[in-house]
Write a structure and sequence with these properties.
With 88 residues, this protein is mainly α. The protein contains 3 helices and no strands.
Length: 88
C-alpha cells in the first residue's frame, strides 16, 4: 500500500463530492450519490474496472398477517428502483 498525503480531509459525502466537483481532487463515494453529476459531465469516474460487484439488498421485517401500509408503500417504491439500479 502506498500512503497518500491529503491536503483536504472531509467527514461527509456531500463535502467530498462538492470538493471533487470544485476541482480539489478525487473522492471515493458510492455511485448513486453522484449519478446526476456523472451524467451531466461535472464528474468522471476513475478505475471503473476495479469497482466491486453490486451486493444483494434484503428487506427484513417481522412476519405479520398484514404489512403496515407505510411499509408496503416503501417496498412498492424502492424494490423496482433497486432492481433497476442493481441490474437484477
Amino acid at each position: 500500500m502506498i500512503p497518500i498525503l491529503s491536503s483536504l480531509v472531509v467527514n461527509s459525502v456531500e463535502a467530498a463530492v462538492s470538493a471533487a466537483t470544485a476541482g480539489a481532487g478525487i473522492a471515493r463515494v458510492l455511485s448513486y450519490k453522484i449519478d446526476d453529476l456523472v451524467n451531466s459531465g461535472a464528474l468522471v469516474t476513475l478505475l471503473e474496472a476495479y469497482e466491486p460487484s453490486p451486493i444483494p439488498v434484503s428487506f427484513i421485517y417481522p412476519s405479520q398477517c398484514q404489512v403496515p401500509l407505510k411499509f408496503r408503500a416503501f417496498l412498492n417504491f424502492s424494490i423496482p428502483r433497486l432492481r433497476e439500479r442493481l441490474g437484477a
